[in-house]
Amino acid sequence: HLSAQPGEIRTTCAYCGVGCGVLAKPDGQGGLTVRGDPDHPANRGRLCSKGTALGETVGHEDRLLYPVIDGARADWDTALDQVADRFRETIAEHGPDSVAFYVSGQMTTEDYYVANKLMKGFFGSANIDTNSRLCMASTVAGHKRAFGTDTVPGTYEDLELADLVVLTGSNLAWCHPVLYQRIVAAKAARPEMRVVVIDPRRTATCDIADLHLAIAPGADVALFNALLSQIDRRGARDPRFARHLDGMEEALAAAHAEDVSRTGLSPAQIAAFCDMWIGTEKVVTVFSQGVNQSTSGTDKVNAILNCHLATGRIGRPGMGPFSVTGQPNAMGGREVGGLANTLACHLDIENAAHRDAVQTFWAAPAMPERPGLKAVDMFRAVEEGRIKALWIICTNPAVSMPEADRVRDAIAGCDFVVVSDITDRTDTARLAHMLLPAAGWGERDGSVTNSDRTISRQRAVLPPPGDARPDWAILAEVGRRMGWAKAFDWPDAAAVFREHAALSGVAGRFGGDFDISDHAALDAQGYAALAPFRWPTAGTRQGGRFFGDGRFFTPSGRGRMIPVSARALATETCEARPFRLNTGRIRDQWHTMTRTGRAARLNRHMGEPFVEIHPNDAARLGLAPAGLAELRGATGCAVLRVLVTDRVREGEVFAPIHWSGDTAPTGRVDALVAARTDPFSGQPESKAAAVSVAPY
Ligand code: SF4
């Protein structure tokens, strides 16, 4: 691998939470060539199919090039004045909680920071939530319960140093391919390294599994409680580390009482898993959407954390629980507090001292004292007319939210909807009163944080097309037009980053985990040249791991084991809807295909919406391979190409989430998913819907 060559600009991939470094070079004709950055710590030169095709996604076809108001082209002044006026009037008439922002883990940290500051500090509402709610909100809640803060304990190196990698609820081979490649390479170098995959479906990730546990949908708590129970019975607890923990006895009691038959696994399979896990000191348990997207997602996270805490296998080389985030900047969004129930820099919105400190720092006129509406509740409030002005930025909820048809109708009925995006061709954009053209990946400056806390720059490589502007600049302009000129006066993204970094010093004063205030004086040149760095940036943990030293961020300074018990899935299958629908991603598409759909070679991988169904079910229902099936849930239907495969079990089907379309029949799979949510995280149960399947 050669390092950067003349004309190549270092940036970071637009897609998943691995956060791969990219070397991008304009081709002189409006396009880009890309290759993996050999110097980036996340990927060391590797890219997956999506990253490799980034250069094919930057064309101007279908781009939104200028503001649009009620279908007619407008100029920025008119559009921004109207946004400012409508939000000001709505707040004045109906109060701050009558407005909302729904934002995205695709935004840069700088975009997120400005959106969060405008809503929480100046509108005085916490009604800002993000599509990260559908992605990793359960991990945030689980981390906070156990650690006191939303802190990922380990690093990517741990996945290579481990002697056992357990992947649960994660099709890493397709959803985080470069991280998967790193494990494959580590296993090739050390064949004694073992991999366990826990997934109801036999995914591509199972190719490297020494053991695949085809667990019953949603049963992770039961399995990890079985493991915790065995950890105790076999004397595998770490008594020295136990001094740093609360809640051990309660968690053990719940684990011993667990009904392990819920897992659907045989006693021999469970014993084999426990033997491997307990018998291997260096174990990393990787978890992703199969854990998070559940009405017991937070409990699942804590069931996993409990096992690592009880054995002291956390925050040491090759050991620990490891959440891999879906989006490129879900972690940055968490750091700025871009969720409805967080504040800024991992501070707590319900803590008066934290609120006061942030309010003082921002010189903000108003701060909400309570969390705002989480995504599902937010769109319910839109439906009921309680939210009267909604700004959707860089995301497509009319396709991606559970009960997507209902969400689409709710947005259509809202008094005032602004959508900022790179295109007007999304189902959500078609519902907007106002469209604002956003600069996209490759056209904007900012930063993102990946799954192992590494902050990297996304850099502008091409000029934005037409009148497009970066999201942070659009939001700041609205803030200024609403009368807060000083608070929203930044000349560039670097200045926003500096302010975010300075605010993190406030969190540091409260003893929090996220403090990058040593970057608060970064000048424009320093920001331009900023190399990837992993926080924490100072102290004994600098650049490394958390909690191996027994120091946690709870008020007592001790880690918490949380007693959890498996619960039934929220949606029962029944005679009318006898199939369990699992949803997920495919290798070559991203979210609702706004960007990846532009690359012909990515569309060749799997060109149509499809459903995986077991051969016995297909035969019984009269479904021919490559025929069409209609899936019906309680809240919607989808028509999908039939893919007959024994990767799924009888009674279970799998369908990817990517396709959209607003005229029936469509492949909008989230229309089938009920909006039932986890009580702690508010994350919907996207992987266990109940549906009927029939020939179309
Ligand atoms: Fe981009 Fe993720 Fe692929 Fe890396 S693994 S190139 S971050 S999509």
UniProtKB/TrEMBL annotation:
Signal peptide: none
Family affiliation: Belongs to the prokaryotic molybdopterin-containing oxidoreductase family. NasA/NapA/NarB subfamily.
Single GO cellular component term: oxidoreductase complex
Molecular function, one GO term: oxidoreductase activity
Lineage: Bacteria, Pseudomonadati, Pseudomonadota, Alphaproteobacteria, Rhodobacterales
Keyword Acetylation set for record: no
EC number(s) per entry: 1.7.99.4
Cofactor: Mo-bis(molybdopterin guanine dinucleotide); [4Fe-4S] cluster
Keywords, ordered alphabetically: 4Fe-4S, Iron, Iron-sulfur, Metal-binding, Molybdenum, Nitrate assimilation, Oxidoreductase
Domain 4Fe-4S Mo/W bis-MGD-type: 6-62
Biological process terms in GO annotation: cellular respiration; nitrate assimilation
Identification of the protein by name: Nitrate reductase
